[in-house]
């Protein structure tokens, strides 16, 4: 064996970088332990206490509108995954910074973790419906995280001291050595200490402790690996168990929704046969999803209830059975999101089974002076709908319990949601609805109103080209250009298409199911090789032409005629 040479020189820059990297790793591992402990305690004690979900929901509520729009536009239904990924990345970076801070300026790293824990606790206790108990998982997790970080960094320091005891330590090390940091921890293994065969005071000597290097390194790495693996197993396990046990999938599948008293009559010619054209009814699997819910609420229909409060003669509460007992009818309604760009895909059509909201409101008796209904979701989301839109005999505003022949999918509002023809989803289509408050626009504000969207928002008439699509060259010769158009509550009267900015030619329309359902349109064209512009515009049954002027989605929905480039090969 080669005689060890005591190192008197400062560790090389690269060596210092290695220790800093290990410190960063200690930070990340400590944060992982924090989250894992919080998840498992949340599972056992307080289901609403998951810091990951609480912070995620908090972020959703505070991110600026453009960021939200970007996420929805870029990631569509995966916007939540994107959000969780971003938060995860931020946590890893912050934890690494905490590790390095603890290394160079203790106890700043521990302070940073404690601060992060405190912020998470604030996010948790300020959530709608959160109990004080919900803060316990994160508080416990944070304590563990702080302790682990300081123990791990102490071990790292010990290892480094063994390599080069007299090298000027990272700032703050002096304090660490003088009070014997790293050698008095309760978790230090006396056996390992004995095996090293060195007196406890070795660290105070000027000599390197080469014999210690391997032991100290092993002790740091072993603890790091154990904590990392333990956190991964415990954290992921708890999340999975908690997701599985709170899942009501079986219940939903077994749920018997009574037969409808009336069915939607789909007239002959309601569905055109054109490849690439949206189907008249959007399958539940393909139906767009937009909401602020990070985890889909799971509600047991047996415990669900809907209360009607506010400016009413009689406040009332309905159970799920009470809703069913009102008698179900089937409705064909196209639901549209205010975030739908011209030509966009944030809309869909379904056959909904439900009961008129006006029937429920009538039982409560709205008082004069009321002009708005604030509907609340179990997750805190609210929508403000003009009272008139919910009481008008001519508008099929419903509480829906089924969608395209099955109980509402969880993501679409199980067990009960609202669907109101002619109004964008954010002002009307509350999913997981649990309360209606009859009120006024003056007294109450819905979720999106202070976030840059209008308090009232009727759906703007629009038309969309489905086929041919950019990037999918069509063949020269007879070609069908087709798409959908909608003007909810009024109905589409005419759709016109212009090719290469030529004259507007009328499209053939599918037979409308009703005024609340989009129609399909098709134009036959002899396609010539090359690139062509195709534009589309609609006119409603009252003769109003679709708005030509371009408008962004905020504050009350996009407008403009879609004009798109197609290529014919
Ligand atoms: N509870 C709840 N309901 C909600 C929302 C929400 O964020 N939370 N978003 C609304 C919006 S903006 C739209 S466009 C529709 C979308 O319904 P879908 O996801 O079933 O397509 O739901 C509405 N209902
Ligand atoms: Mo929306």
UniProtKB/TrEMBL annotation:
Keywords: Membrane, Transmembrane, Transmembrane helix. It comes from the Bacteria. It holds the Pfam family Oxidored_molyb. One of its GO terms (biological process) is sulfur compound metabolic process. The chain crosses the membrane at residues 81-101, 108-126, 132-153, 220-241. The keyword Aminoacyl-tRNA synthetase does not apply. Residues 167-210 are annotated as: Disordered. The keyword Transmembrane helix applies. One of its GO terms (molecular function) is heme binding. PANTHER family: SULFITE OXIDASE, MITOCHONDRIAL (PTHR19372:SF7), SULFITE REDUCTASE (PTHR19372). This is DMSO/TMAO reductase YedYZ, molybdopterin-dependent catalytic subunit. It comes from Herbiconiux ginsengi. The lineage of its organism: Bacteria, Bacillati, Actinomycetota, Actinomycetes, Micrococcales.
């Amino acid at each position: 064996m080669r005689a060890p040479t005591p190192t008197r020189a400062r560790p090389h820059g690269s060596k210092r970088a290695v220790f800093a990297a290990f410190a960063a790793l200690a930070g990340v591992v400590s944060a992982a332990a924090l989250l894992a402990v919080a998840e498992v305690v949340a599972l056992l004690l307080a289901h609403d206490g998951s810091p990951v979900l609480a912070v995620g929901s908090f972020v959703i509520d505070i991110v600026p509108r453009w960021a939200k729009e970007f996420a929805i536009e870029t990631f569509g239904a995966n916007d939540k995954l994107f959000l969780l990924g971003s938060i995860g990345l931020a946590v890893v970076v912050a934890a690494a910074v905490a590790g390095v801070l603890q290394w160079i300026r203790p106890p700043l790293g521990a302070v940073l973790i404690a601060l992060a824990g405190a912020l998470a606790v604030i996010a948790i206790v300020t959530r709608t419906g959160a109990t004080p108990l919900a803060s316990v998982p994160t508080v416990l997790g944070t304590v563990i995280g702080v302790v682990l970080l300081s123990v791990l960094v102490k071990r790292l320091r010990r290892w480094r001291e063994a390599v080069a005891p007299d090298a000027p330590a990272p700032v703050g090390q002096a304090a660490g050595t003088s009070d014997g940091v790293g050698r008095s921890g309760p978790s230090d293994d006396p056996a390992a200490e004995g095996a090293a065969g060195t007196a406890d005071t070795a660290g105070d000597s000027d000599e390197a402790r080469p014999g210690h290097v391997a032991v100290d390194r092993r002790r740091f790495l072993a603890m790091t690996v154990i904590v990392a693996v333990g956190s991964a197993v415990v954290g992921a396990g708890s999340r999975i168990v908690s997701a599985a046990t709170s899942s009501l999938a079986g219940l939903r599948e077994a749920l018997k929704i009574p037969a409808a008293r009336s069915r939607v009559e789909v007239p002959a010619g309601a569905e055109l046969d054109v490849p690439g054209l949206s189907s008249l009814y959007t399958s539940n699997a393909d139906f767009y999803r937009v909401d602020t819910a990070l985890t889909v609420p799971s509600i047991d229909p047996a415990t669900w209830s809907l209360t009607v409060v506010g400016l009413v003669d009689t406040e009332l509460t309905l159970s799920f059975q009470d809703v069913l007992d009102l008698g179900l009818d089937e409705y064909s309604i196209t639901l549209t999101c205010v975030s739908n760009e011209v030509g966009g895909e944030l809309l869909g059509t379904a056959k909904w089974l439900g009961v008129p909201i006006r029937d429920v409101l009538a039982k409560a008796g709205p008082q004069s002076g009321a002009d708005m209904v604030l509907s609340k979701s179990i997750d805190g989301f609210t929508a403000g709908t003009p009272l008139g839109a919910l009481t008008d005999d001519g508008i099929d505003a419903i509480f829906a319990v089924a969608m395209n022949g099955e109980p509402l999918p969880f993501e679409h509002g199980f067990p009960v949601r609202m669907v109101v023809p002619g109004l964008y989803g954010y002002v009307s289509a509350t999913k997981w609805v649990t309360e209606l408050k009859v009120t006024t626009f003056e007294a109450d504000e819905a979720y999106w109103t202070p976030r840059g969207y209008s308090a009232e928002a009727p759906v703007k008439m629009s038309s969309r080209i489905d086929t041919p699509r950019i990037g999918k060259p069509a063949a020269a010769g007879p070609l069908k250009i087709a798409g959908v158009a909608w003007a909810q509550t009024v109905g589409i009267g005419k759709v016109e298409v212009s090719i290469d900015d030529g004259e507007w030619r009328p499209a053939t329309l599918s037979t409308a199911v009703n005024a609340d359902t989009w129609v399909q349109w098709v134009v036959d064209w002899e396609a010539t090789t090359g690139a062509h512009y195709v534009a589309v515009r609609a006119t409603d049954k009252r003769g109003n032409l679709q708005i030509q002027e371009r408008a962004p989605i905020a504050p009350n929905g996009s407008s403009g005629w879609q004009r798109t480039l197609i290529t014919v090969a």
